Amino acid sequence: MTVNGAYNLVYHQKETVRLSEGMGKNAMLTLEAMKRAIDTLKIFSHMCQLFEVSEIIGVATAAVRNADNGESFLQLIAAETGITLKVISGTDEAYLGFSGVINTLDITDCILFDLGGGSTELTLIKNRQPVDAVSLPFGAVNLTERFGTQDEVSAKKLYDLSTHIMQELNKVSWLKELNLPLAGVGGTARNIAKMDQKRKNYPFNKVHNYRLGSLSFLNLWQALTAATVKQRAKFAGLSKERSDIIIAGTTIVKNLFDITNASRLIISGCGVREGLFFQHYLTRMNQPLIIDNILEHSTQNMLLFYKANVSHANHLAYLTEAMFTGWQELHDLDPRDQELLRVASLLHDIGITINFYDHTRHGAYLVENARLFGLSHREQMLAAVIVAWHNGPSAKYIRNKFYSEFLDESDWQKARKLALLLALAETLDTTQMGLVKKLRATSGDGQAHLSLTVDPRTASIELAEVQQHRKWFKKEFGLDLILTVDPL
């Protein structure tokens, strides 16, 4: 976290250690599994030292809390790595997963599942609040071992596996026929997204907020269950280390689709780890643990992190909002488009941190790849194009395959209109002094009007600069742009 309160992910590493592997009924972590975990934590400890980390927050989940030798294992970790881990309950794990998801996904109601190696946490979310939660004692690893689904799966094995899962799910009284989307956290969920993206030639490799329907998932599950472990290892998008446990993992998801009657699955790349971070960060910042507006929060965080001119950005957001509202009949766009315009207005100059002279292109790249929460992948691409065009449209973005596969002609038209409003606002604050105190946009009699409350003696640059976009305005809206000044 920076001194101004902004935060950013600076290093990311995930390792599959299968801590619950081999536990069986004796409820003991094996020496091999503990060694894998400790070796991994030694690497993590080393990276924390390199990044001069001042505080480490770590938790242990199902495998350790269910193991009779869990406490002695934690003591061994502390002695060999210097990392202190806290064992959390299934309820706490479910809430942390909820926190990581609800603060990064724009969802109101859903069934959240966090599918691990030794347990699966389910949370019913309504109106962005956790209503019910349960921790079930099965995951991708222990079910694989119990039902022997590592390699080729017979019809009987698959039947026995599905029957067991459904029997356990039927014990959860609130789970049936909810007709809500599923939201998935964990390695199985991420691999489902990656495989589906490869099958569809999806142009963006981001899994967070990736969505697929029940039929797409069913087709994928059928292909996986018909393959051997060697064949599954060649599935594009599937991590090789998961090719043996993916049957158990996806069959859990299949049964969740069936019992809840869900129509789609939303993938979250954020879960318990991010929940831990938000719990720590939001408490430290004296903010509610459930962020009210995740898009505004993440946008403002980016604005602070890239050390942009905050007052200038906020003033542009005011100016563009006034134009968007006043010219509603001209552009015929909806409130969601207004939110995209606000995001682009606030972040339009962040590319300056890389290079001022090409900051529109750099800004677009940063927005395109930013951890902006609350936007669909298409909306994030659209916001990036608006930032790229705030000095004028460029055909290279339309020709770019990456953008063109996301955006259709109506999106490009929308981007031109919104970029024009941002360009006008930029010229009206050329000196970044906030000289235009009020703006009123109207239209009528074949003309569009901008009425500005400003001192014309001090804002001569702004009044001259805004004229350069009159031709663009005429081309976009078919009207002449008329400026009037109401002196202060």
Descriptive terms for the model:
about 500 residues, alpha/beta, Nucleotidyltransferase, domain 5, Hypothetical protein af1432, 22 helices
Would you give an account of this structure?
The chain has three domains: 1-87, 2-Layer Sandwich (Nucleotidyltransferase, domain 5), CATH 3.30.420.40; 90-273, Exopolyphosphatase. Domain 2 (Nucleotidyltransferase, domain 5, 2-Layer Sandwich), CATH 3.30.420; 294-486, Hypothetical protein af1432 (Orthogonal Bundle). A hairpin with a 4-residue loop joins strand 3 and strand 4 (120-126). The chain is α/β, with parallel strands linked by helices. The protein is built from 22 helices and eleven strands. The longest helix has 20 residues, at 31-50.
Largest beta-sheet characterization:
6 strands, mixed
Q: What is the percentage of strand-forming residues?
A: 5-15%
Structural class: alpha/beta
Strand order of the largest sheet: 5-4-3-6-8-7
Task: Count the DSSP helices.
Answer: 22
- Broad shape: elongated
Provide a short characterization of the protein structure.
By secondary structure, the chain is an alpha/beta fold. 49% of the residues lie in helices and 12% in strands.
Topology:
Layout: H1 31-50, E1 58-60, H2 62-65, H3 70-81, E2 85-87, H4 90-102, E3 110-115, E4 120-126, E5 129-136, H5 140-147, H6 155-169, E6 182-185, H7 187-199, E7 210-213, H8 214-225, H9 229-232, H10 246-260, E8 264-267, H11 272-284, H12 294-305, H13 310-326, H14 328-331, H15 335-347, H16 359-369, H17 377-388, H18 395-399, H19 401-404, H20 409-427, E9 438-444, E10 447-453, H21 460-465, H22 470-477, E11 480-486
Parallel strand pairs: 1-2, 3-6, 6-8, 10-11
Antiparallel strand pairs: 3-4, 4-5, 7-8, 9-10
